[in-house]
Amino acid sequence: MRQSLLWWVYIFLFSTEGMALVCDSYDPKCQIPTSATASRNSTCSSIQECDHTPGSGTPACYALFGQNKEGELNVMMKGCIANIGHDCAPSSVCNGQQKKLRKLQPLYYCCCTEDRCNHDVVMFISEKTNKNSTMEDINESIRNLTLLVWANLITMMSILVLIAIAMMVWKLISYKRRRETSTNVKRLSHVVCDKGTQQYHNTSNWKKKDFQLITCLVRSTYGEIWQARLHGSNRVIRIRLSAGSDDVYVYDKQVMVKNTNVIYNTARVV
């Protein structure tokens, strides 16, 4: 009777030992063994048998991994873990969910309750990650658009400033020219003209001696404007002073009525 009881105990223990959970194991510290002791360490094995401790929850397999910039998975750790909260999925594949975000790369974690279920890892990127990526793209687009708008505004403002400077310079030059012209007209209006003492070559139908010169109205480097008499009537004539020319131009009789206008307008014509 006692022997049969012992046999039943052995069978129970053997069956319990045979049902222990087996998981893939990975520890980055054991990638390159530095000593014979480290190479014989059980944690450096690729397969780990999970110990079941009463009160610590059922054993489960876990995997901790990350994703690089190219989208590839980098396994960080694998092994056994206690399924205390029964959060591990009863699946033959370890489904990765995002655990937390790091500055360099996201960190993912998964656990399952079947033998070597952490050998194959399937990653499910949470909606939060997609939202973060979308927001980063939107923020980057906004920054680029802001830079483009500022660049265009600066360019337009620079063009407007250059146009304003050019207009100011042009107005200043025009003002100086008008001022010089006005000064010359006033100065020439006080010049006493020569009443025919110089000899001119006659190239027109009128001769200077045909007129009685009365008053010199305007004189410039190109000619003189005179109030003269011809056959008993008053005339306004222009005498050219260019070399080899003694042209006399007779203005209309009505010109004499516009005394002031004749002086300044003819100054521009001469």
UniProtKB/TrEMBL annotation:
One of its GO terms (cellular component) is plasma membrane. It is found in: Membrane. InterPro entries: Snake_toxin-like_sf, TGFB_receptor. Keywords: ATP-binding, Kinase, Membrane, Nucleotide-binding, Receptor, Serine/threonine-protein kinase, Signal, Transferase, Transmembrane, Transmembrane helix. The chain crosses the membrane at residues 147-170. One of its GO terms (molecular function) is ATP binding. GO terms for biological process: cellular response to growth factor stimulus. Residues 1-20 form the signal peptide. It is a single-pass membrane protein. Its EC number is 2.7.11.30. It is an enzyme of class 2 (transferase). This is Activin receptor type-2A. The lineage of its organism: Eukaryota, Metazoa, Cnidaria, Anthozoa, Hexacorallia.
